[in-house]
Amino acid sequence: MSSVASRRSVLPGFGLSLGFTLAYLGLIVLIPLSAAFIKTSGMTWAEFVAAVASPRLIASYKLSFGISLLAAIVNAFFGGIVAWVLVRYTFPGRRVVDALVDLPFALPTAVAGIALCALYARNGWVGEWLDPIWAGGIKWLSTHVPWIDWAGWLGSKLAYDRPGIFLALTFIGLPFVVRTLQPVLAELEPELEEAAATLGANRWQTMTRVIFPELLPALITGFALAFARGIGEYGSVVFIAGNQPLHSEITPLLIITKLEQYDYRGATAIAVVMLVTSFLLLLLINLLQKWSRRYYRL
Amino acid sequence: MKFKIFLTVLLASALGAAASAKTITLLNVSYDPTRELYVDFNAAFAKYWKAKTGDDVTVKQSHAGSGAQARAINDGLQADVATLALAADVDALYNVGKLVPQDWQKRLPNNSAPYTSTIVFLVRKGNPKGIKDWDDIVKPGVTIVTPNPKTSGGARWNYLAAWGYALKKYGSEDKAKEFVGKLFKNVPVLDSGARGSTTTFVQREIGDVALSWENEAFLVLKEYGADKFEVVVPSLSILAEPTVTVVDKFVKKKGTEAVAKAYLDYLYSDEGQEIAARNFYRPRNETVAAKYVKVFPKLTLLTIDADFGGWTKAQKTHFTDGGVFDQIYLK
Questions:
Q1: What angle do CA A224, A228, A231 make, to 5 degrees?
Q2: B97 contacts in A (CB within 8 Å)?
Q3: Which ipTM did the prediction report?
């Protein structure tokens, strides 16, 4: 009988704080979430399937989860580099750059969406020259990398199409990776690298065998956060996605569409599907993180 | 001590002032493109009400997509009056929230639509694609901007106008379905609301033609200059009737019934009609309409009741899940 509470802790008030935590979590997270489940529980199984498995929705799941994943991977890589640079180097304007990273947190997402549209549309500053490059690039890929199906991307534009969704999700996901990696990187002493070097490791070995394993758990957390955020993102995406049924409609948009028709149950049914899928994916990512900790701690 | 007296006097005078002239606040929950109209109208109404009763009235405005607004009122937004894009959205106030009586539309003249509008084409200056009528916009290579009918009231009028045209011209529902199918194949961006669509067309320079509220099209000419855009009036369109109602449940609770009713009645007055016309809504009043006959070209207009069997039916046939609009994408 060695329950957690009976073990004497240096800090008093365990029962109180646990009670508070549970009540708080229940109020903020569980009650709203369970409302979604309760609302859908009134549906029969056939109704539920009809509501969540129409071709339009299936296409939107693939799109929402696929592009969120892609954006999270890109963010994990480039966000990692940004965090590295911000922690390890001093350069003029570093604090400004550091503050800029938080901008996607602070900016209303609709503003982000509109700004990205203005930039990447064919008459925008960036889109003007990047759009032709993108179109050419996809064309090249479709002939040289034929084992991937490029049909959904061929002839696409940057803004008002699928690539726009990717741009928006990369934008809003970046701070999650950077902000989770930074403190871990700051803790990581340069002496560690020096020690590795004196023991005869070359730079590549130091990077992959010493630094990367230390960063991996934080990197996975950042990745998971960016991914989860991407799945649920609505505000910035609807402006830039073009919202073509079966092609560039994200799942949250279809929830809103259902709401517009007063189909509250249909909307919550989709929400439930998204919740469960996201939960499973996050669980998987957590397991992966645990495994990575154990794997590298030889 | 002196200060205390001063304070008492101040308080008393404030209370006295409040008692002699009431300050009433109304909330008008409306849809996207009526912002400018109601800014003008509210100022005029406040003046009229002050002259008539001596009370000050401030009208607050709320604008968003028509469907979203109806939902907000049903969910508890304390609107005194709802001035929405189509009767179907006001019907929802009865169907979902029972906030208005079932026969709300019969309470005011002209189906409770004090002003009307229609759907026209907005094209770029010089009309480079030579767009004159509905048949021109479904040709391959023409890009069209319209919002999503599932989320936008205005887009539902767009869709039905196209449907009505094709049905009249080609004679069968299958042909009409094929026609709107071709139309939406030419739509590269489906925004969720009418204002978003206008922005896409005007500022992002996407599309050869925008299907637009007539008032919105005129507003674009006014704001962005007639040297950049032109309005093309098709041979046939639809009579869009934005409807207004007092939200009975909330005005009774707040005790604003009389002033809310007067507010809507004033929309039908000469002054109200004049303001609507100045903001590019077609007035109902014949004499005011005659004054603006040059602004609003005459065209054949379908009506929702005569040609589509009313909103409930049109909504069910075309826009519910699995309806005609969904079918044209699932081929």
A1: 140
A2: none
A3: 0.71
